[in-house]
Amino acid sequence: MFGNEDVLVCSCNYITDKEIREVINGLLDEDCWQLIVPAKVYHAMEKRGRCCGCFPNVVDIIIRTTEEYHARRDSTDDEIFDFMSRLKQFHEENRRADIERRQKGHRAA
Ligand code: FES
Q: From the CB of 12, is ligand 1 less than 6 Å away?
């Protein structure tokens, strides 16, 4: 499935799956237990989300790459499980806040 192929994830900034994974791995090298969000990845690339339509995909890549990163290290299963639950919950909350924000914006418009 997702091997090393180069898939275009963000068409606004022309960013590929591979570039995103590289940045995530770099961020995890700095602090492997940090919670990464798409804006942080783009900021590290000196890019910005424009339409932000790619963010859900970037979240998926963040989760998958983080999981793989810890699988390669000697983190214990408990540590990984705990961290991945927090990461997924964090993104879920962000996603919900995002939807709410959009709905509010819509109503105000
Ligand atoms: S597709 Fe990534 S910001 Fe628009």
A: yes
Number of Cα atoms under 13 Å in the Cβ half of residue 58: 25
In a domain, 2, yes or no: no
* Threshold 0.70, pTM exceeds: yes
What spacing in Å lies between the alpha carbon of 57 and ligand 1's midpoint?
Answer: 10
Token pair 């890019």: residue: 47
Tell me the pLDDT tens digit for each residue of 58-91.
999 999 999 999 999 888 999 999 999 999 999 9
* Inside any domain, residue 3: no
11: left (phi over 0), alpha (psi -120 to 50) or beta: alpha
Atom of ligand 1 nearest to the CA of 49: 3
* pLDDT tens-digit readout, 26-41: 999 999 999 999 999 9
Number of domains in the chain: 1
> To test the ligand 1 pocket, which listed residue (8, 14, 43, 51) has its Cβ within 8 A of the most ligand atoms?
51
